[in-house]
Specification:
Elements: E1 8-11, H1 15-26, E2 35-38, H2 46-50, E3 54-56, H3 59-64, E4 68-71, H4 75-85, E5 95-98, H5 105-112, E6 117-122, E7 132-138, H6 143-154, E8 157-161, H7 167-175, H8 177-194, H9 199-220, H10 224-231, H11 237-247, H12 250-265
Parallel strand pairs: 1-2, 1-4, 2-3, 4-5, 5-6, 7-8
Antiparallel strand pairs: 6-7
Length: 272
């Protein structure tokens, strides 16, 4: 991979920001000294400083030195952050990446300048192990900058480019979706305990089975129903279990949960 030549500022170094920074270094996209991590209390960044990252509690100074700026704070904190960095924004030099849920590109430009290039990215917490599903979207960034941001996030997982009006939906399906699938795995492991396995055995079996199911779809490029058909036989135990789950609303409850999360994600940010 060709190394990025400029400087990167990640404002709000929580789980997503730190995982992205580590992924960029691990993949040789950038070196640690090219990346500035900010947090209000930088004592929490001591270990990262020892790894060579630049750490700071001055968001404006970090932005002033950066070519790519990642806004990695909660939606409720974004307006205050944008006010802090406004004097340091250079629309001719910088690209801004926002991972804040429910905040549009135009919302950000209204705060820091109409000509600023903004790209939204929605990773999930699997970014910590380089397995994120990240969706990216923009309404004004150049194809070159979108390609660069895509390359960045490909260092920590898979990337899909989507229309911006689908970003809230992506939040529900991919970011919130991690929790939904984890809850399904937890439920499966609890079922395993009910039928006789120790908790640690049941969890390991459920996790590996879920991983195998996901890898089947990814590697075989098949549809879930194709793989389900392979394991269901007439009057068999699999179809009996599936039908019992469906009678109790398994699929419909998951669909409803995703729809509700999408609605909630769109209401997290206050423009004023």
């Amino acid at each position: 991979m060709n190394k990025f030549k400029g400087k990167i500022a990640i404002l709000g170094s929580g789980n997503i920001g730190v995982s992205l920074a580590k992924g960029l270094v691990k993949s040789n996209y950038a070196t640690a000294d090219q990346i500035t991590l900010t947090r209000r209390n930088i004592s929490g960044l001591t270990a990262l400083a020892k790894e060579g990252f630049v750490v700071s509690d001055d968001n404006a100074a970090a932005v002033a030195a950066a070519d790519i700026v990642v806004l990695a704070v909660l939606p409720q904190q974004l307006n205050n952050l944008l006010s802090q960095i406004l004097p340091a924004v250079d629309p001719q030099k910088q690209v801004f990446i926002s991972v804040a849920s429910g905040v549009s590109c135009i919302d950000i430009r209204n705060k820091i300048g109409e000509t600023v290039q903004v790209i939204r990215a929605m990773p999930n917490t699997a970014i910590a192990i380089g397995q994120s599903m990240t969706c990216v979207a923009t309404d004004n960034a150049t194809a070159e900058n979108v390609a660069e941001v895509t390359r960045m996030f490909e260092t920590v997982g898979a990337v899909v480019k989507i229309n911006e009006d689908l970003m809230t939906s992506a939040t529900a399906l991919c970011a919130c979706g991690i929790a939904f699938f984890l809850r399904a795995i937890r439920a499966a492991s609890q079922g395993g305990v009910e039928i006789g396995f120790h908790a640690d055995e049941a969890l390991k079996m459920a996790v590996q089975t879920a991983k195998g199911a996901a890898d089947l779809l990814l590697q075989m490029q098949s549809h879930p129903e194709q793989e389900i058909d392979k394991v269901t036989s007439p009057k068999g135990c699999t179809i009996a279990g599936l039908n019992e789950m469906e009678h109790h609303g398994f699929s419909s409850s998951l669909i409803k949960g995703i729809k509700l999360s999408a609605a909630k994600a769109g209401a997290l940010y206050t423009k004023e």
